[in-house]
Design a protein that fits this description.
single chain; 159 residues; alpha+beta; Immunoglobulin-like; 2 domains; six-stranded mixed sheet; 11 strands; binds copper (II) ion
């Protein structure tokens, strides 16, 4: 019946070997963390080197100003949306559906693999940062019912 204490000892050995097997995942986690940090640091370095480029886009009833947002392919940009209207407005473009974006708003910081819609209450502000890659002209609009039809639309022009 001394198998029980022995089993305890074995248990300790077992946990030692468990620690052994845990080490590689920890290293993998560390490697992943370093990669994530590098990915986060690279755009920051790039921005610092080239100067932050912010483009302010105002929303109101019923227009975006400017209506044509000109961007350079490969240059990171921050679209800073400001809702100066009395109604909620939103920004939607197919161009950003599959582009990694960072959205920063009141107390928010979201990294997403793409963007459908940014909706702002009256007086609210949010920044959408991304790197435009595909050149061309792409429509955007406020897709709240009736707003696009009233004139709330524009074009992203990437050269
Ligand atoms: Cu609107």
């Amino acid at each position: 019946m001394e198998a029980r204490p022995t089993a305890g000892t074995l248990g300790a050995t077992g946990s030692r070997s468990l620690r052994g097997t845990r080490r590689p995942p920890r290293r993998a986690w560390t490697t992943r963390a370093v990669c994530v940090l590098l990915l986060l640091a690279l755009p920051a370095v790039r921005t610092a080197a080239e100067g932050p480029r912010s483009v302010r886009v105002e929303m109101s009833e019923f227009a975006f100003r400017p209506a044509v947002v000109r961007l350079r392919a490969g240059d990171g940009v921050r679209l800073v949306f400001v809702n100066r209207g009395q109604l909620a407005h939103q920004f939607e473009t197919g161009y950003l559906r599959r582009v990694p974006v960072t959205v920063v708003g009141a107390g928010l910081h979201i990294d997403a693999p793409g963007l459908d819609v940014v909706r702002l209450d009256p007086g609210a502000t949010a920044a959408v940062a991304f790197v435009p890659r595909v050149r061309g002209r792409f429509p955007f609009a406020c897709t709240i019912e009736g707003h696009r039809e009233a004139g709330m639309q524009g074009t992203i022009e990437v050269r």
